[in-house]
Design a protein that fits this description.
Blueprint: E1 2-4, H1 7-19, E2 24-29, H2 35-47, E3 50-55, H3 65-70, H4 75-84, E4 89-91, H5 95-98, H6 119-123, H7 127-142, E5 146-150, H8 154-166, E6 172-176, H9 196-201, H10 204-215, H11 221-234, E7 238-246, E8 263-271, E9 274-282
Helix pairs in contact: 7-8
The structure holds adenosine monophosphate.
């Protein structure tokens, strides 16, 4: 497995791969890898000749400096895990390598419209601008045939598809199912920041999504929202940020189950100072 810290050396290697007509699958990550990330690598492995992963904790997508500072970093273990999955190359660049003109200078000009201002976009100003910047930089550097992202970050996946379309990249964007712990908690690098008590309580989010899905057969979205709000009221450990029912294409709130073919329930909540995300497609019919 090749490990590159700078862009020109990776591009020289990629050029060699392209000369041999090899298709390239890209898996962007922020490291602290778990089985969710590895499922992306496996999909990329199955669908491409070459798999390239990136490990980069992208400062421009963090709106909270404390969150950036506390973000787990475990590079040696990450590299061993990627090697074990048959990854061919890893880009582990410095901030200066990814932002040669500095993080303040934003040369990209994407417009995501209302998709950007709901849910994660509402609570984390500038977050998706940062995501778009790093994703387009990685697409420019690697120019993959396909790129792999998790449904876990549902809104991010929509933003990535918009970057791909607006930037005319022509990359096949593959969304991969959420990988969960045995107790239902969606795997996340941030889970390792949970205290033992909070880790034990964390599957509550998944249980709420399952409950909402069950209620969706008989109750209106408004009724479900009220019952969920009551569940969060009773749970002293969690502070709910949003529990939204949206159109999976536009990400805009849906008033009635029957308004769209499928409704995506998306939740974000703090437990202690760790912010957890989860989502699920509701099968109301
Ligand atoms: P991150 O390192 O958190 O930026 O995640 C890198 C990629 O892995 C993103 O496309 C995530 O959506 C995806 N990912 C993270 N956690 C999971 C999970 N539990 N299941 C599937 N994909 C995931």
């Amino acid at each position: 497995m090749q490990v590159f810290e700078n862009v020109p050396s990776m591009q020289a290697w990629l050029e060699q791969q392209r000369l041999q007509n090899r298709s390239i699958g890209l898996v962007p990550t922020m490291g602290a890898l778990h089985a969710g990330h590895l499922s992306l690598v496996r999909n990329a492995r199955n669908q491409n000749d070459i798999v390239v992963a990136s490990i980069f904790v992208n400062p421009t997508q963090f709106n909270d400096p404390g969150d950036l500072e506390n973000y787990p970093r475990q590079e040696a273990q990450d590299l061993a895990m990627l090697k074990g999955e048959g990854c061919d190359a890893v880009l582990m660049p410095s901030v200066a390598e990814m932002y040669p003109n500095g993080t303040e200078h934003n040369a990209y000009n994407y417009a995501f419209g209302p998709m950007e201002t709901v849910m994660e976009g509402a609570g984390r100003p500038g977050h998706f601008e940062g995501v778009a910047r790093i994703v387009s930089r990685l697409f420019d550097i690697v120019a993959p045939n396909s790129a792999y992202f998790g449904d876990k970050d549902f809104q991010q996946l929509s933003i990535v598809r918009a970057v791909n379309a607006q930037g005319n990249y022509g990359i096949r964007i593959e969304g991969c199912p959420i990988v969960r712990e045995e107790d239902g908690l969606a795997m996340s690098s941030r889970n390792q920041l949970l205290t033992a008590e909070h880790r034990a309580a964390a599957p509550f989010l998944y249980r709420c999504l399952l409950q909402a899905n069950r209620w969706s057969g008989s109750l209106s979205i408004d009724e479900v929202r009220h019952l969920l709000a009551a569940m969060f009221e009773e749970n002293e450990l969690f502070a709910l940020e949003y529990f939204d029912f949206v159109d999976p294409v536009t990400l805009q709130p849906v008033a009635n189950w029957e308004d769209v073919p499928k409704v995506q329930a998306c939740v974000a909540a703090f437990i202690g100072n760790v912010r957890l995300l989860d989502n699920m497609t509701m099968q109301s019919t």
